[in-house]
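**Paired protein data**
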Amino acid sequence: MKKKYTFVKTIIIAFLALFIQQLEAQTITVNSLEDLLPYLKLDNVDVKLAPGDYSINAFDITAGKFSNPLFLFEGSDSTYDFTDVKISINTLVLTKFGNNEVNELQILGNNNVLKNLTIEDIGTTAPSDRAQSIIMDGRDNRIEGFNLTVRGSYPYGYGDAFGKGGGAVIAHNKHSGVLIRGLRNHLKDCNIISRSYGHIVFMQAASYPTIEGCYIEGEMRTTDDMLLEENTGSPADNVDFMTDWGYRLPPGYMMSLQEGGIRAYNAGTTYIDGVEIQRGTDNPTVKDCTIKNARTGVTLVHATGTKHVENVTLIGCEQGYSIGSGTVINCSGDAQYGPVLSFAYSSDKNTDIDINVLPAEGPYYNGSGTVAYIGGSAHNITLHGNDPNANLKIQVGGDKNNVRVLGEPFNQNPLTASNLVLNNQTDFPVVLDAMSSNVTGESCGEITDNGTSNNVVDCGETVTFPDPSAIYLINNPRWTARLGADGGNEVLMLAETASTTTAQWKFTPVPSESGYYYMDCVGGGDKPRVTANDGSVSIMQASTVTDDSAKWRFDLYDGDLFHITNKNDKRLRGVDTYVDIVETDSNGSYTRFSFTSMTLNTNDVVLEEDITIFPVPTSGVLNIQFRKSVSGKVELLDITGKILISSSIKNRNTTLNLSNFPTGIYIARIYSGESVSTKKIVKK
């Protein structure tokens, strides 16, 4: 009898396991919000809400149909499909949970995917306390394809002019969009429109968050328009327009009615696996996003770790990028209402920034007068693009002239700027304030230097070293010799008069690794590339080798002498008849090299005198004229050495059309017989 009972029990357990497995494998379709709620607590479910328009109003809360948060996803490893679903939430709902924070949707579980939901707040009623439309806790969750319209806050229409939080001139009840917390949570391909005061997307206690492919939008209002409320009894009028910054609201500025487009904080609380964790935000990634009309576009200054911003576009924001440290690459933005780039503190350092300045979509209303404000140290900043209709400047150090910092000095204004590199490839003028020092680089716009030991020069006067379009001889003065290669395994020491291809070197920039180059010998045959690992001598290898052993930088020692050091911190040293490898603490005369450009040889001098290039700078067609008929070709290269145009020289005239290329620095390389001439070209 006992054996029979055990057998039946086993059958029941197996049946239940099979039933659960089938339940987990199938997609469950529910037809109402009430039917959806029980599945939010379960693990390993695939749930689809039937397409349609759904609504939540204050009566639903009174009837006990929904709690706070309205939708709480507590399960893990589940997928929720809301394709063709719209949920309209009356903003009166935000007042029905007492004086408590209200969250419309929150994830607490792990490894969940929520996709394709449209949520729209209906009305303008502010929450009793504050609200967020979405909060992401837990880990490895993804919200994808959401369309979110956020409404309901008090007061609305002034941005942060009269306060943000505690101690505000006018008490605020905020309603923000998306709050990302937790670990490795991902907001992807979402459209978020805010018509409420609060952050549109922000991060607190988030570790390795990713915001990707999102369109984020607020709206703007001029301070002049706000001041028209005088004698109307509006909230601003009732405080005589006295701002939270300690002075009356000034005219002449454009302000966002929201807070940050994407913002990170250095503190917060999150919940992962039921554990409460308090920490800041670290290692955020923002890519492929567009942000319009926010108070700040991308502000990551208070995050820690690796901060990466890529392929982001900012339109009509009060302030553009401000990350403190980290990388901004392949990004763009306009300065219609404020600087496309800014820094928060003098302690900000080590940013690598490449921004294309876009023309504004409409009239400028930029009260700060700056296209970029630069503070801090050890930055490498490149600005390109242009807008001839903008009467703006690049401010390096000093006063920000921001609407929020017109009062007494404090830790965010004014700032010092020091030991940084600025490459201004725009026509905007650069003003180096008295609080700037040791700023180097070049500018295609006018330069005003009121600082100390700065060396920013006109872009037409500089020659990039190493020039990717040039060929160099590498000299070792200690041995009156030159480096060379002939297809063998090692770098050679040649006579100081050597100038054949075995002594000629070309340097190619390493993509996305500023300051590092591949070193290839023109006469190096199948092994043209210098590498160095742990051996005692340098090794010549094929040009396909691209690991760190082949990436070299040129560290200035003194005058025209450089140390040649690779990314593995191995340094070249000339020793009479051969070249060996030493560590970076070795800096004697054996390790010092100078460079002779072979861009021009004896015949080239004649060629240089016979060439006329105009107009420089050019906005379109570049004319190249020769004093006498020649045959050959002309190439246009970008600053990485990539050939953009190659054209034959016909008789005495040829042209290059740069109209479709962005503003910046280019190189024209002209060949005639054995002669080569290189000219720097500025496209404006």
Residues 68 and 102 are 6 Å apart (CA to CA).
